[in-house]
UniProtKB/TrEMBL annotation:
One of its GO terms (molecular function) is magnesium ion binding. Binds 1 Mg(2+) ion per subunit. The lineage of its organism: Bacteria, Pseudomonadati, Pseudomonadota, Alphaproteobacteria, Hyphomicrobiales. Belongs to the thiamine-phosphate synthase family. Keywords: Magnesium, Metal-binding, Plasmid, Thiamine biosynthesis, Transferase. GO terms for cellular component: cytoplasm. This is Thiamine-phosphate synthase. The gene is thiEe.
Length: 211
């Protein structure tokens, strides 16, 4: 069983993080309590992803936070990342698992009940469920599912789920009440004046959730 904590999952956005950079944003967020960091940059080529990813890995070394790479298998392997996250349009989970091997964490985005129920727990370690709300950080997102939809998809997923899509500190209680193991955030941390303080606010709400 792979050990990872989905509770406060930061997804980096190069545009929002432009002021202080993705590496410094991640470092501050992890200091503030982020448990996982996903490198997502749809405009970057593999070599640029590897360069950023290696800098991230160095910055997060010794913190216990897990580094996940979005979509780019080659970069994830070259970086020595803790995991890979794929969407439904990227590649199938079996191919991804064959490429990354048994040890790396594999996350898969699911947007519908059918997709959640079809997840193979022998291949996939966690699901990213959403979008809960519409969000400008992902222009091509699917129809928002709300907290009722989140609860249905989480229940159908055979592996732990992290909620995503327009989520902020004030949504923590509802995310966990729906059965998710955490929330993935982008703009709630990226691009804020103080990413560490922004993360601490979310982490404080997570600590209030009954065990």
């Amino acid at each position: 069983m792979k050990a990872f904590d989905l509770s406060l999952y930061l997804v980096l956005d190069p545009n929002l993080c432009a002021q202080i950079g993705m590496v410094e944003t991640a470092r501050l967020a992890v200091t503030g309590g982020a448990t996982m960091v996903q490198l997502r940059d749809k405009r970057a080529g593999t070599s640029e992803m590897i360069q950023t990813g290696r800098a991230l890995k160095q910055a997060l070394g010794g913190t216990g936070a897990r580094l996940i790479v979005n979509d780019d298998v080659e970069a994830a392997i070259a970086i020595g990342a803790d995991g890979l996250h794929i969407g439904q349009e990227d590649m199938d989970a079996r191919t991804a698992r064959e490429l990354i091997g048994p040890e790396m964490i594999l996350g898969l985005s699911v947007e519908t009940e059918a997709l959640a129920a079809a997840v193979d727990p022998d291949l996939v370690d966690y699901t990213g469920v959403g979008p809960v709300f519409a969000t400008p950080t992902k222009a091509d997102h699917k129809q928002p599912i709300g907290f009722d939809g989140l609860a249905r998809l989480v229940q159908l997923s055979p592996v732990p789920s992290v909620a995503i899509g327009g989520l902020k500190a004030e949504h923590v209680a509802e995310v966990f009440a729906a059965g998710a193991k955490g929330l993935a955030v982008v703009s709630a941390i990226c691009g804020t004046p103080d990413p560490e303080a922004a993360t601490r606010r979310i982490a404080a709400e997570i600590r209030k959730v009954p065990a």
